[in-house]
Write a structure and sequence with these properties.
Order of helices and strands: HHEEEHHEHEHEEH
Helix content: 25-40%
Structural class: alpha+beta
Mean pLDDT: 90
Low-confidence stretches: 217-228
Oligomer: single chain
Number of strands: 7
Shape: globular
Strand content: 15-25%
Radius of gyration: 19 Å
Length: 228
């Protein structure tokens, strides 16, 4: 069977972009650093599936697991976070309730599930396990890629206080997007969700509630116009 780290690279290429995670060594810091986390959902050789956190580098070389989903999360210093997002961090701070004092920042980086294994609750299981250690060190943010599959957005809405920003045309020019087509520039947007563990949560929830009411009113008005 194939090594776990090789399976993770292949799964990332299939579900995100071929340029996102390009080699097995990418996962080593998430196993070695206690402030970062790699969770996988695997079908073990003994037939018992489930979510586990990899905490030893040697586990990346296992060949007795079939991996059908993974998450990457962790706490990131300001300079590290610069390399994790495709917009300047100063812009993130300007357009969200985040401040420099929030670093190191808990970041839910990615959840990926084998397309052939979706609708089994794997993403939900992975997220529940991966989000738990982050809630111990708020704030927590997630950048959700707005795609045809809304599962990740639903999970973010469940755990976060609400949406705090949207970045249009988020990805760099060298991002190979499976939705836009590898031969085209990616025009996908990213929505930022957050949970702060302080009074900012109340403000975010109130802002989102107001936006929902406004959107509902516009939808009702649109439907009325369409009926004439």
């Amino acid at each position: 069977m194939t090594r776990v780290d090789t399976q993770l690279v292949e799964l990332s290429a299939e579900t995100t972009s071929p340029v996102y995670i390009t080699g097995p060594d990418y996962f080593v810091p998430y196993v070695r650093d206690p402030a970062k986390h790699l969770f996988v959902h695997r079908e073990a050789a003994d037939g018992v599936p489930g979510v586990v956190e990899l905490t030893e580098v040697g586990e990346l070389g296992r060949t007795d697991w079939t991996v059908d989903g993974f998450t990457l999360t962790g706490e990131f210093e300001y300079e590290e976070f610069e390399g994790e997002v495709s917009v300047p961090v100063e812009r993130v701070l300007a357009e969200t309730p985040l401040t420099r004092e929030d670093f190191p920042l808990s970041f839910f980086k990615v959840v990926a599930v084998d397309p052939d294994q979706r609708s089994r609750g794997i993403g939900t299981q992975l997220t529940a396990k991966a989000i738990a250690p982050l809630f111990e060190s708020p704030p927590v943010v997630a950048f959700i890629w707005l795609r045809d599959n809304p599962a990740n957005q639903r999970l973010a809405e469940y755990y976060a206080s609400g949406q705090v920003a949207t970045f249009e045309d988020y990805f760099d020019e060298d991002w190979d997007c499976p939705d836009c087509g590898y031969e085209n520039n990616c025009t996908c947007d990213v929505m930022v969700y957050g949970w702060f563990g302080d009074e900012r949560d109340r403000a975010v929830a109130a802002s989102n509630a107001g936006a929902d009411v406004e959107a509902e009113t516009e939808t009702e008005g649109g439907a009325g116009v369409a009926s004439h």
